[in-house]
Design a protein that fits this description.
The protein has 158 residues and is mostly helical. Helix content is 49%, strand content 0%. It has a domain of 93 residues.
C-alpha cells in the first residue's frame, strides 16, 4: 500500500514538472506582430538597436521616468514623447490597436499598457482630437476606474 502511494506521488510530480516545462518553454520569446500591423518609424534610426528595444523598452522607460520624477534629469534620446513622435502615425487611434504601433505590440503579447491614461498616445504633429473622442476617452477611463482596480502581474524577461 505504501509503495503504491509513493509511485503515485512520483508520477504526479513528474507529470506536473513535465507540464511546467512544456508551459514555460516559449515564455522568453517575444515575437513582434506582423509588419503590416506596425507603423514604420519616421526617423532615420532608433536610439537603440531593435532587439534591445523589443526586450528592454519598458525598463528604459521606467528608468527614465524615475530619473525625471526623482531627480529632474531628462534624457531626450529616451523620452516617451520622442518614441510616440517617431513610431506612432498621426492618424493612429487608441481604439484600433492595428493602427497604433505601441498598442499593436502590447495586444499581440497580451501585455496591459496604462501609459496613455496620463500620456498622449499621438505624436505632437497629429491633428487635435475631436471633442467627442475626448469625451469618449474620459468616459471609458472613468468606467474602468469605477469597476475597481484591475489586478496586474508584471513579468520580467531575461
Amino acid at each position: 500500500m505504501g509503495s503504491g502511494l509513493v509511485r503515485l506521488g512520483l508520477l504526479a510530480s513528474a507529470l506536473l514538472l513535465a507540464g511546467l516545462v512544456a508551459t514555460l518553454t516559449g515564455c522568453s520569446k517575444v515575437e513582434p506582430p506582423a509588419p503590416e500591423l506596425l507603423a514604420q518609424a519616421r526617423g532615420d534610426q532608433c536610439v537603440e538597436p531593435t532587439d534591445l528595444m523589443r526586450r528592454d523598452h519598458m525598463n528604459i522607460l521606467m528608468h527614465e521616468r524615475d530619473e525625471a520624477k526623482r531627480y529632474g534629469r531628462r534624457n531626450p534620446d529616451h523620452s516617451f514623447v520622442g518614441c510616440i513622435d517617431c513610431h506612432v502615425s498621426p492618424t493612429a487611434s487608441r481604439d484600433e490597436p492595428a493602427t497604433h504601433f505601441c498598442l499593436a505590440c502590447h495586444e499581440f503579447n497580451a501585455v496591459r499598457m496604462d501609459c496613455f491614461q496620463c500620456h498622449t498616445d499621438r505624436p505632437s504633429d497629429a491633428p487635435p482630437r475631436q471633442r467627442a473622442d475626448l469625451d469618449r476617452s474620459i468616459d471609458q477611463y472613468l468606467s474602468t476606474q469605477a469597476a475597481g482596480p484591475t489586478p496586474v502581474m508584471e513579468i520580467a524577461t531575461p
